[in-house]
Every structure is written in C-alpha cells, then in structure tokens.
Amino acid sequence: MPEIDRRDFLKIAGLTAGAAAVACKEPVHNIFPYVHQPEEVTPGIATYYNSMCRECPDGCGIRVKTREGRPIKIDGNPEHPISKGRLCVRGEFGHMRTYDSARFAGPMKSATDASGAKSLVKISWDEAQGLFVDALKKSAGKAVFLGGRESGTLDALLDQVLPAIGAPHRLRFEPYAYESLRSGNQLVFGSEAVPQFRIGAADVLVAFGTDFIETWLSPLANQIGLADSRREGKGFAVFVGPRLGLSAANCDQWLAPNPGSEALVAIALASEVAQRRGGAPEALRGLLAKYSAKSVAEKTGILAPTLEGVADRIAKASAPLALPPGVELQGTNAARFAAAVQILNVVSGALGKTVVFGADHTLGKLGRFQELSELAGKMRGGEVGLLMVHGANPAYSAPQVGLADALRSGNVFTVSFASAPDETAQLADLILPDHTAFESWGDAEPVKGTKTLQQPTVRPLFDTRAARTSPPAASATCSSRPGAAARASTRRWRAAASGRSFPRAAHRSRAAPARSTSRSPRSRGTPPIRCWSSTRHTISTTAGCRA
C-alpha cells in the first residue's frame, strides 16, 4: 500500500468532513415575501375572525385567531348569545380537524384488487361527479339522503334539491335526538317542541339523571347557566340518579333511588309540591292523588322526609326548574318519565320562568331511531338503490340496526361526503370529501331566533369541495328543470348573505376570511357577507372588514 503524505491526508479528511456536514444538515426552508399582500394580512400580526363551532350541533359562536392565513387559536365569541365568550374543550381544538393528515385528499372510489380485497383509490372530480350522476339516474326514486342535524341554509337547500335529483327521501339522524323528551312533551303539552330550560334563572334546580354539564341539549350554555345561578352563594341543586357523575358532583344534594324508580320520585315530588302550592290543574289532580312521598318511599329507597324536604324547597322557590332525563337514564318508560318531570315543572310554576317555549331547540325534524332501523331493512330488501351520507356516522353510532351489514351487502351504492375516514365512509363506494368548518361558508339555527354565520378562515388545504355544491351540480344534469333548485337555493343564500334572513345575526362578523396567498379563499361566485363591526358601527362587505 503506497504511503499517504500529509497533503493527501488533509485532502481526504476535508472531503470526508464536508460530505458528513452535507449529509447531516437540516433541510432548507425558503421564506417568500408577499408579492401582492392581502389588505387584511400583515405578516407577524394576528387577524381575528368571528365564525361558528361545528364540533356539535349547538352552533356556539367562536373567535378564530389566524397568522398568515392559518387558524391557530379558537376562543368563544363574547357577543354570541349561546357561548358568551366561553368554549368547551372540543371547540378549542376544532381547527385541528382541518390539519388532520388522515383527511381525504380528494375524491375516492372503492376498487377491488386481484385478491378480492376492497380499498379506496383516488380519482378526479370529473370522474367522481360522473359516477354520482350515473348512480342518481339508475336509482331515481330509490335514493335516500341520510344526514345529521342541519338547521341553516344547507338544510333548506337539501329540501329543494333532493326532490329535483330523484331523491325525495331524507332522514335526519342524530344519536341524541331526545326522542323521549319530545314524546313526553307531546303527552303533557300536546307538542313535541323542546323548550329552553333556563338554568341560569333557577334558584332551585332538580336534575333527574340529566348529565346537563356534559351532553344534554347545549352543554356549554348549561355550564354558563349553572355558574350564573350559583353566584354569591345563591341557588340550590339536587341530582336524582344512580350515578355520581360530573353533573351530580356539582350539585348540593344527591339522591340515589333504586334503579328504574326515578319516575316515581318525579311524580311524588309533583304531588307534594302541588299540595304545598294550593293544588294542581284539574287535569292532573286524579293522577297526583295516587302518589306521595310516603307511598313511593319503599319502591324508591328514599325516605319520605328526604323527598318532603326537597318538595319544600321547590314549593318555596321563586324560579324552580326540573330537568328531564337524558339518554343515560332511560328505559322502556322513558317518555312517561320525561312527562312526569314536565308535570313537576307545571305544578311548581316553572312554565314561563325557567321553562320557556317559543325559542325552542330545533329538534323537530330529527328522525327517530325506528326510522333508521326501517331504513336498514329497506336497504337489505333492495328498496334503496343509492344512499348519500353527510354529517352522520351511523355505522358507528347505531351499530345495533345493522346498517354496516346492509352497506356490505352490495345492494346499495353509497356516497359519503365525509372529510375524513370514519366507519361509514370506509364502507362507501364513492367519497366526495367536504370542506371542514374552517374552510367553508355556512350557517345554523340551533335555537329558533338565533342564527349564526360561519365563514372560512383558511383556503382549502386539500382537493375538497363544499358538500352543498355537489347535489346542485347533479341537479343540473338529472332535473327536468336543469339547475332550477340550485338557482333557488343560491337566491336564498344571497338573501342570507345580505342580512335579509338574518335580522339579528348572532355572531356579528367583524372580518373577512383569511388569505394565505394573494388570492382570496372565497369560492368563485360566493357573494360577500355583509358584516356589522361592533367597534366601528359600520356596515361593509368582507372585502373591507378588518379585525
């Protein structure tokens, strides 16, 4: 081996060190300045937008902090009548769905490989729309739209468009449909309307197995109301139920009756309160006369003096409130249980004070569990040719009806509008991914009279399209009056955007959608939202709204 002199050794050592340095250095990140900088975006300075949370159907108002066109922090909107500046933990992290790397990057279809295994493969939007239209034509009159709890413009749009494309059957499915409460209200009041339960105005609260802090109706509004009712040591809360959960732990008194006897506690309290307040309405006297604290003590396991003490508090209260049971404490007598609690509200004088009809929760259009079970049966029997799924995951939330097996049968062509994989989307034949709530326009009316607008805060990160554009696009091909329903819905959207159908827009938008480049994230053809600036008291379009 030839000898290496000092000069050659230094050359080799230098090359080795240089190669190691190149191999181990960090990747280069190029920062490009704005060539055409958007007016509302200043690099390094946050921009805030008012919008709406979509993590649950309650439609809380939110304020989104963005930096360079990307949402980074979510807070409650202090001007919103539901959230009042607060937000639950799900809402705080709602924008992370937009950044989820597992989202569908574009339209996909189910394909079978040589081994017979099925998988989803990427396709173009032209091919996806073609498959969708073909399925609609083949299944005219046998198409069903299975959606979630929609209450805004999209809800009206679907009602207009679906019949035009040969899909007149629509089912709104929500796991928490409050069927027993609606049925109980029908028994007592003759209406399925679900009123406002004003916890914040109550000085004595009795919850019958109602997990109102976590899941019942509007949990965030319930939490705010409970905090308001307990300020300065005011208020008294009683929880009746077998489980000491979060809601029970935040009450002053916990009554744990024998499981299944909670309805007897409610009707016995109603009877005791009626006696202390001078009697009950004529229609209820015969029923209440059969029950008392002493007569139900043995069956419920609660001593008569204890029930009588609670009845005394309710009778002396100026604004009592009894909360009907939630889904966690229901059985075969669920409707009668809810009716018994509402009877307690009637005899205690809660109607018009803490139980207020008029500004009802928009639950009346929700389908019942039996309807979903019937749909699964029709799918297995070949009565359904096309199933469109949007905003619902029944394969996960209602496994007992056998919808997943019906989807696997191959009798139904399934189209999913999910933005990310879920149990139902995995069984679909075609995926038309929707934008997330932070990438699209929208609105909702969770409570009658409270309408909240939703605006995009970032341009779509993937090749997705708003679900509200797919049925209208199909209607232009399938309808006998091409695009008629789509044009009608567009006129409604423009009316909403101009403020005519939103006389008291709850969220009072202060800013335009964010822009991550020189182009606007707003979809082409979307009308600008007129917004009211709470600080400047001026009306302007999104082009001029600044935080």
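^ that was protein a. below is b, sequence first then the tokens
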Amino acid sequence: MKFSYVLKRSTSIVFSTLLLISFNFFTACKCQTDKAETIEKIIAAPKDDAEFQSKMTTVLEDYVMHLSSIKTDSIKFMNWQEVAKEAYSKNTYHPIWVSKEVLSQKGKEMLHVVGTTEFLGLNKELYEYEDLQQIADSLTKIQPNIDFNLLKQLEVGLTRSFLQIALHVDHGMFADTSKGINTNFWAAKDKYIQLLGKASTDSVSNLIASLEPNNPMYNRYMSALKAFVAKNNISATPITIRNPKLDSIGAVNDARKALVYHHYLLDSLKNNDEAYLAAMKQFQIDNNLKGDGNIGANTIKALERDNSKKFQLLAINADRWRKEHIIELPEKYVWVNLPSYKLKIIEDDTLRLEKNVVIGKSNNKNETPILESAINQIVLWPTWSVPQSIIKHEMKSFKGYTVTRNGSYTSVVQPPGPRNALGCVKILFPNKHSVYIHDTPTKSLFGADLRAASHGCVRCQDPLEVAANVMMMDTFLITYDSLKVLKERKVATRVFRLKKPVPVYFRYFTAEADFDGNLKFYADVYGRDKQMINFIFKGKKPHILTKEEIREKQVADSIAIVKKKKADSILVATKIKEVIKIDSLNTRAINDSLKN
C-alpha cells in the first residue's frame, strides 16, 4: 500500500509533462464515465491479460466516444476522429497498437513507420512522432505498472497517425491554399476503416504501400527518394556561394566545397582543377543547366540547395504524384514535364524520343496548364487563328493575315507557310485550355537554359519527328523521312486523324528520376514550390475568407469580366479599322503613283 502511494507521487511529475504534450493533439475527454475515471486514477500492474483488456477496452470506449468528430454534409468534410469512432466501434473498442507491455508488436511496427515517414516523402512532424515516442518511453519506465490515461492517448495517437499517413500517401499532404494540409476523409472513409481493420493482422508498411500509385515513373522516383534519405543527413546545412563578380576565387572555393557536399567531387580532389570542372559540368547537367562550368545565378541557386531543401523538394513532388493520382500509365504516351522543358515519347517504359520544348511564360495569364488528354490530330502546314489577347496587345500590323469581321467579333488568321507562328506542324488533343504542341519559325530558344516564353502552348524542337513517331504509334505506315518529303512537296494544310489517340500528359514536377534512377532537380519556373513548402514544412495556415470578403470578391470579379470583354471587343475592332484604313491609304497612294 505504501509503495503504491509513493509510486503514484513519483510518477506524477513525469506524467504532468506528458499530459500537456498529449493535450496538444488530442481533445481531452471531459465526460468520462465513473468506471473509466476510476481506472485512469490508478497506476498499477494488471493481474493478467484479461484484466488489461477489460480495463483498456472500457477506457478506450469512453475516450473514443467523446472525440471531437466533425462530419459536415454540406461541404463534404469528415475528420479523422469520425473515422476512428466508427473503426473502434466495429472492433468493440479493442486496442490495435498497445498492450500490457506498452506497445504490441503492431504498435512497435506502427511507431517505426511514423518515425521513418521521410522514406515515404512525408513530413514526420505532421504525425506527432516525437510526442508519441516520448509517451511510449515514459510508459515503459514505469513497467509493469500501467497508466491507462496515457496509454489510451498513445493508442488513439497511433491510429490518428495511421489514418493521416494513409490519407497523405493516397491523396497528398497538401490540399490547396484555402485548406492547407489535407485532413478530409470524406471521399474514402470506408476504405480507411477497412485498412485500419487489417492493421491488426497485415503488415502496416504493406497496407500503406498499397495506396501508392503503381507506375514505373513513380516507382523509380520513390526508389531514388528513399536512396537519397538513406544516404544523406537531411537536416539543414546552410551553403553560401560568394558572388563571382565580386570575388571569383572565393566563389570557386565555395563551389568546390559545395560539390563535395553534393557528392559530385571527392574531398581529396576538390583542389584539382580538372576534377572540379568535370564535377561542375555534370552537376549543371543534372540540374537541367548548361554544362559550361561557369558559376552563374542559376548554378549558385542549385549549389546552395542543401539536403534539407532537397528533401523538401522531393517530398512536395511525391505529393504532386499522389495528388494527380496517376495510378497507372499506358503502354505508349507523350510526357511533357514543364519545368524540365522536355517532351518525351515513351513506349513500354522505354524512352523512344526526347526533344526540348518552350513552355508558357511564367505569369498567371500564359502559364502552360497541367492536363491529361490524347493526341487525335496531326496538322501539316497549319493556319494560325490569332488569339484576341495577342491581337489587342502585340500585333502591330495585319499584313499577310486574313481579317474577318462578324458583328462585334473580329478574327485574324495567318495562312500556312514557313513564317507561320505554328511552323510546319501542329499536334492537337482535346482540352479546355485550347493549347497544343507545335513547331515555330523561331528556333533560338531551344538552346537556352530557361525556356518559358510562349503564350501557353508548347513549342517543340523537331516537331515533325515527334509527329511521325506519334503517327507510327497509330495505324499510319509513315516514317519521318516520308513525312518530311510530304511537307516539302507543297505548302498546303493537311489533317491526319488518328484512329487510336495517343495519351499525352502535361505535368509539373521540379524533381524527378530519369530512366536510370538518377534524381534531377529543375528550377521552379512557375513559383509553385514555395507555397507547398510553407504549408507542409513551415506550418503556414490557410486564410479563411469572411462572408464580406467572399461577397466583395464575387462582385469585383463580375465587374472585371464585363469590363474586360467590352474593352477587348472595342479595342480590337478599333485597331482593325485603323489598320484597314492605313492599308487602304497605302493602296490608293500606290495606285496614284502608278497612274502618274
């Protein structure tokens, strides 16, 4: 009796700290039944497993029933607590993770999964690993005695982590800027309940893995991510490269150290100029930069990216894969990863063709969209219907264009030919953005490091070769050479319709693995990485618009749309009239001079 009293007093200080920790991520049960409350007040060793199970089930039922669950039909939202309630109810409130020895074998496996979530490309801090480990350690210290109050929180805490890891592997950590971290279980509640039910018998790692996309590209990427985490310390290690314009020698010395850090240069060879230059060029190539050995601004950005920043990039790009939910990829397809500025034709998971591309400018108006479609037409010597925005803001002359007015709408079309903005070929696929892949008479940009310069469509290097390969994937018995002969024979628009459309994907990944499993990092041309990193790794919270802000935004948007449409139509019509007037005056002047 005296020992029990002393034990309670000695452990109270330890547990007070743990209770504060656990309160941060669980809502305390304030409506306990007398039986559950009595059990939790006593810290002692149960006589046997039967007594432990009886007491644990009583405490767990009381605790789970009073979790702060949310289920809102109007916005289709459900939190993890609602899922946990139903799952434990089906299991008659028997514990999944804890035992008389604190953690069962399943519990140890689950805690290990939480502690190694970096290998899944997840942020471990989202799953309260440190707190769970601390509770488990403290409970272990008082063995064989048990504090059921803390044990219930460890049990439900591991369930919370399991459900959230499952959700994030299934659909991504990041929802969007209005919601922040993904916490909504509405869409697949039954799937997660079933998954949790299997956790008591099946491998936890295998259950989580069953939710991942299963295509060769994703699998290569995740293998490379896991190898990176296993090989590197992913804690922050600041790297600074001096400005080469102010201190060229200092910049080179900094670059040598950075290349050693990035495993491109052996420390014993960092002062060897030949080895340094070779390492620098390879580093630049692997980061989608021109391998010239010069320390430019983009090379400095890549060199200063330490392992912590690299892991964050790897994690958010794994998140993109999961959010895009490309579970499988077809046998043949065209793949454009926008930040890589590359178009790839892939067949049987083998790279058949790769070409440089120019994508949309890095502004909200011209960015090339993410899309998924299927190529169904190849147009040889296409015409170009000029978008209204280009007519309004960029065109200075309509010479050589066909201008047609239909009421208030004016269309401007450029006929086919070598000077046509779409070049000699256009590759079409249905999409709501009206974008496509095409040739261009301006070839110089294909050699640049950063190639975001179009109005949204994808300009392609050697598009005729791309077109020939796509057509051969269909039923056309045509080669690149024969298509080239056809193109050069006559400037006339010809349309080839594919009987079996070829899938095409436009995606946005600033990190990927090549076909040899090597990681590649690309510049965030559209500036989308920062917001994901801020939400996932830096605790940023979404701004919730008030009713007044929503109303003001709707009114402002409606007014802006009406004004823009009216201004566009007036400006285009006025501009056309001016150009026609000038052309008419020029024609009259030429005729008068001929008469004289």
